[in-house]
Amino acid sequence: MNRIKTILILLIFSLILPIFALYYSGNTGYISFNDIVNFILKGTTGNEFKDFIIKDIRLPPIIGAILIGLTLSTAGLMLQILFRNLLVSPYTTGISSGVLMVVAIVIFIDSLSHILKLIFGNNFILVAGWCGGVFSMILLIIIALRVRSTNDIIIVSLLLSYLFLGVRSYLIANAEELKVHEYWEFSIGSLSKITLNDIVPMVICTVIFIVGVIFLIKSLNALLFGENYAKSFGLDIKKTRILILFFASFITGSIIPYVGLIPFVGLIAPYLARPLIKTSDNRYLVPTTMLLGVILMIVCYLISLKYYVLFSYIFGIKKYGSPLPIASVLDILGGLLVVYLVYKGEKKIIIS
Description:
This protein is an all-alpha fold. It has a single domain, classed as ABC transporter involved in vitamin B12 uptake, BtuC, CATH 1.10.3470.10. Helix content is 78%, strand content 0%. It contains 14 helices and no strands. It is globular. The chain starts with a helix and ends in an 8-residue tail after the last helix.
């Protein structure tokens, strides 16, 4: 199939799925599909309470899923090209560990949490997450400036992740159960945390990231053939490396405070995009990865809300409960897809 046609089909799916998600993400008996269509076309259903449910409850997680799909999937692709490794994801760089470490310090050290609560109110954990992201990003850029090989960067990043994990483990081991639960609620990947007020900063960060990716496409294509080849064409390797790490770290550190850990989309979306678009040319691969990320996030979000329906149909068990964390659904579904593709030998496009 023509590559442009493939991208257009994915674009259509990524536009239609959020509309269905708005309808199916709640009680379909109360809000009809016509209400959803009227809200999209006219900005209102004609009923204030229905408008409130759609706008303040159903819409934020879906917009969040779209933004996460666009950004984290592309960040994963960029890092895989930089490190020439299909197993690299935005969370391999240690950014997530830095965010979680700072949040853990704030939650488990009472004096610090009280001070931040007085300054930032209930958003103090969100602010702590941003600070952790900035701290990790600065560390990563310093590492990138000091070392020569990209492999050394990922090794040092992994070692830093273990260091941050050690700090978190010590704090958790000596914390009260209530504090541990508060930390766990922050760290687990879930779209239900997103509110309407969170959408604007998330959109701003997404736009900045996408603009950066567009300017990096030529550099990413040059890196496909190795750093020596890229150097022969006049590419500044160190500058490109820092820019890729900066944008990937920036968007990862910006997203985690809002949703927690959703690591697998940055691994599975680029993996699926390569055999689908059948090229490593980032002019086609980047939009394909973005759109697949959106589709995966929306599908997994719906599954996380309606998993008890699957229990009923598959096992004949009527199970009702709270929504599953989307990260759990994405890990299971993505893992099964990767195993299937490897088993069937569908991974035809590799980084070479």
